[in-house]
Amino acid sequence: MTGALLDALFSQSAVGLHVLDTQLRVERVNTLSDAVAPERIVGRHFTDAYRLQDPEESEELLRGVLESGTPLLNHVIRGRLMEAPGPDRSLMVTVHRLDDPSGRPLGLLAAVVDVNEQEKSRTRVDALASVRRNVGHSLDMEAICQGLVSALVPQFADFAVVEVVDDVLRGTSAPVSPVRPDVPLRRAAQLGVDGDTPVGEMRHLPAGTPYALTAVDLRPRLIQITPGTPWLDADPVTAHMIATTGAHSLIVAPLKLHGAFLGLVSLYRCTGSEPFDERDLTLMLTAAAHTALSIETSRRYAHDHVIASTVQRRLLPQHDGARIAVETAHVLIPGRNSGCWFDTIGLSGARTALIVGSVAGHGLQTAITMGQLRTALHALAGLDLDPDEVLARLNDTADRLARERRSLPPGDSLHRQPLTASCLYAVYDPFTRTCTVARAGHPAPVAVDPDGRPVTLDVPEGPALFSEDSAPFATATIELDEGSVLAFLTGSRLSDDESASRVRDALGYPDRPLQDLCDAVVYNLPGASHPDGAALLLARTGVVPPERVATWELAHDRTTPSVARTLVRDRLEGWHLGEETIEATELIVSELITNAVRYGAPPLHLRVMLDRTLTCEVHDTSPVAPHLRHARTVDEGGRGLFIVSQLATHWGTRYNTDGKALWTEQEVPADDST
Description:
Blueprint: H1 2-12, E1 16-20, E2 26-29, H2 46-49, E3 50-52, H3 55-68, E4 72-81, E5 89-99, E6 105-114, H4 116-134, H5 141-152, E7 159-165, H6 166-169, E8 184-192, E9 202-204, H7 210-217, E10 221-224, H8 236-245, E11 249-257, E12 260-269, H9 278-315, E13 326-333, E14 340-346, E15 352-359, H10 364-381, H11 387-406, E16 421-429, E17 434-440, E18 446-448, E19 454-455, E20 461-462, E21 476-479, E22 485-489, H12 497-506, H13 514-524, E23 534-541, E24 549-554, H14 560-574, H15 579-599, E25 604-610, E26 613-620, H16 640-647, E27 650-656, E28 659-667
Parallel strand pairs: 17-20
Antiparallel strand pairs: 1-2, 1-6, 3-4, 4-5, 5-6, 7-8, 7-12, 8-9, 10-11, 11-12, 13-23, 14-15, 15-16, 16-17, 17-21, 18-19, 18-22, 22-23, 24-25, 25-26, 26-28, 27-28
Helix pairs in contact: 4-5, 4-9, 5-9, 9-10, 10-11, 12-13, 14-15, 15-16
């Protein structure tokens, strides 16, 4: 029975059975292949009978079983039976030790099963799972293409190339098939054997090649390459690569979506690998469709980002807007966040509003919301309100915007996107050298004095815009030495002590040009890439030059308007202003002083200042505000402020703790010498 059992196993079993002696030579073997007779295998070393890819490792495993007696179960190796045609195959080997009745090792029984098709199926499943893991989790097109080739090489292909239409890489729409023969494709990723064409190289598809045909009809190609393949003559670069690498099998698959041609994926198998088959082609179509969807999503994001960034830049100040007592510099760091902004707004009395803010998120709607808030701030700044009042009214505007968004239909994408924004509003007064700051969910600014020493800025934090917090905003007023530098930065860059310390270190050389300090701050910020983007605004404080300003304390009586006109004329003639400007200013000052004498309270101060405009200010201690009236023909009064409004470019009333100031601004003609 034992002999009959062995004869049946070795003559009828579909499993390759091998009896090996202690030297790992084949003693007995069943019929394995029609191409190789069993008697040609008997007597050979096992690693000679099978041309294994790693014979040393296989021999070590066999000797381990012989020495320990522990069987080796279902171990997969790559190789092929000696003299058998074709490439290497996947073989599953199970090895048991054979012992005599006393337990002495006699040899090994090795069972070999061809599992090549099962392994190929497993490789396809693993490759497709790898594509889904590596592709589609990034909006960066380069990362998407690199993820595809990393998922396919080396387990599925020996060499992979991804080429994307150049316009698609730039964020514009993909061409609809059939595409022009001269459509430019740029190599976005490659992996595997070294190729002569670097990543980033652009080419046009040679006519009469599988690449060009796939681009035209969007159908994949499975091609077995031989030395006589005719289309290689039309593509010398690919022919050279194939000759160098020994590529013998090719799959060309289109990256397509809704009839649009995005690019090509080319997979090669080289010497020692089995050629692609139809099932491999099916897998590649699925992987290419997944990749094409990710590329199109990335393209749309890039397109929207370009639009949002353009809108953002158009909404930001287009020039520095130099002020008489403040020097400013700024830098906008590009990134995902398209809602960062900054502003410097000239206020009455040579004061300057310094503003930074950020709307969380990215895209066109974020940039639009930023523009709405910035426009509202410009309108509020003209009212000469304190910073905390400005932020309170800006928050009211933000609440209205949030209600409008919540009123959108539930299916609208904006309905699901919460709004979050922060803002910092500061006003610098060069006459008192003070900076009054209020903030809404924004980090406090960083400051250094003219010697480079840090200045402590204890600014109360108010609630962020669009938040449910109804806490009031508060201000802090800091007195600064002339030549101090203030740094306002958006986002969370100043929210921790380390970042603030780095910014102070960069600002520790306040005598350097302000734009150089801007760059130094960016270099010192943690995280060199700044993926979220940021806006940085620097301001160096100063004072109004004495030769550009004149201030007088005037008596509170009816003769004061005449005295004021004389003083103003003398000062403006000293500034070499034209007679037309002087006469208009005399009339403005006369009306303002008359109004202050009649309705105001002493003491009374007059200030004139020459910058890009000519400013006149009349200060008194009465809180009562004058009102512009349109006098009727028979009225004896009521025309003063109307006359002022006609002569001045801008005018208004500014309140403080000591009363109010009426101010006007006049444009200075270009031909007036200053």
